[in-house]
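Technical note accompanying the year-one report. For the benefit of new consortium partners, we illustrate the data format agreed upon in the data management plan: each record pairs a sequence with a structure-token string. No post-processing was applied to the example shown here.
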Amino acid sequence: MQIAVGPIISTSELTKEYAGFRAVDGVSLSIDRHRVHAIIGPNGAGKTTLFNLLSGFTPPTSGTIVFDGQDITGRPPADLAAMGIVRSFQITSIFPHLSVLENVKVSLQAKTALSQRFLASSQTTRALDGPALEILKSVGMEDLSEHLAAHLPYGRKRSLELAISLAQDPPLLLLDEPTAGMGTEDIARTIELIKRIAQGRTIVLVEHNLRVVADVCDRVTVLQRGRVLVEGTYEEVRADQRVIDAYLGGGH
């Protein structure tokens, strides 16, 4: 079996303009395989726009994006998901009136011949119960499989969203603010969860909580005003005076 080499996703001079304003300005980025890579920066740095570009929700003004050796610049989100780029959003995106198990089964069903039969009978989809429960076990939710998704606490809804994403078995998982709005206990649980699901895949995350970045990320890219300011390990980045100035306003 041939082992893939090189970065799993990279950008070259990636730019997004809105009425003359460059939200992302010539970003060249390389994400290594089987790593957890954080995109951080002060408010307005261009993090969300960059994520939208990587996941196909926003077409670039110029520049290129290459995933696993293929140019994917401008490809729509559905195409990218089919290729193996799955995005988890800052706001939970679950089916609230389905059970936890049914939510994961719908995601699994999308990868099978049943994908065009959203209302397939429970008997038809029963074969997906085992795989769905295994995924729920990986995120610590197997005991909640029969709970209605709408009744889950906020942190558990985010865990379910990760389970739904994992059901697609993506080699590249994009996490948008995975701990946003969480309390201390849920943040700690999510840190451990990200560490578990990172095995054998690449995770890129936008995250404001630097404790999370420090605990789970191998590499950190800092954006400022749409450009890459610094890249390195968390320890390298946090000690860089340019990063301190960007976050605290020094030198401006």
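Partners are asked to follow this layout when depositing records. The beta strands are 9-18, 21-31, 36-40, 62-67, 70-71, 85-88, 172-176, 202-206, 219-224, 227-232.
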